[in-house]
Write a structure and sequence with these properties.
Keywords: Membrane, Transmembrane, Transmembrane helix. With 146 residues, the protein is an all-alpha fold. The protein contains six helices and no strands. 85% of the residues lie in helices and 0% in strands.
Length: 146
């Protein structure tokens, strides 16, 4: 994967920059999903910790807010003036991995509370779809901002 990633960066074409951004995003999400799964396993082994409904709503809103902030930062990074196009696209892709990553990590932390886990996984899924669809535009915006 890293060899293909390096090859795409050296190519420098818009299509190669999109492929590199998608690979960077995939790597970022994978690096977040691994710890989330481990935290979830530990939480499942420890048993259920009670969480009131208000707490579940607060955690879901926190996850959505943090994911939204990560999205805005990633979008801004794609349009950063004075940054080489490949670097801007990759920075946006890695920051974009936080959009589904934050809800994934929180879902792992609240594994015994399955309703909240499903809500957080839904937020992560929506964040993933949003970022995946924007990666090509961010790579194009990075090239166009020069």
């Amino acid at each position: 994967m890293l060899e293909a990633f390096a090859r795409d960066l050296r190519a420098g074409t818009p299509a190669a920059r999109r492929r590199a951004a998608r690979r960077a995003y995939g790597l970022g999400v994978a690096l977040t999903a691994g710890p989330a799964a481990l935290v979830g396993l530990v939480q499942a082994l420890q048993g259920r910790a009670p969480l009131p409904p208000g707490g579940m709503v607060a955690v879901a809103l926190l996850a959505a807010g943090l994911a939204g902030a990560a999205y805005l930062l990633a979008r801004r990074s794609a349009r950063a003036p004075g940054v080489p196009p490949a670097q801007a696209a990759l920075t946006a892709a890695f920051q974009g991995a936080s959009v589904p990553g934050v809800p994934l990590l929180l879902a792992g932390a609240f594994v015994p509370t399955w309703g909240l886990v499903l809500a957080l996984l839904s937020v992560a899924g929506l964040g993933h779809v949003l970022v995946w669809r924007q990666l090509g535009r961010w790579a194009q915006a990075a090239a166009g901002a020069r």
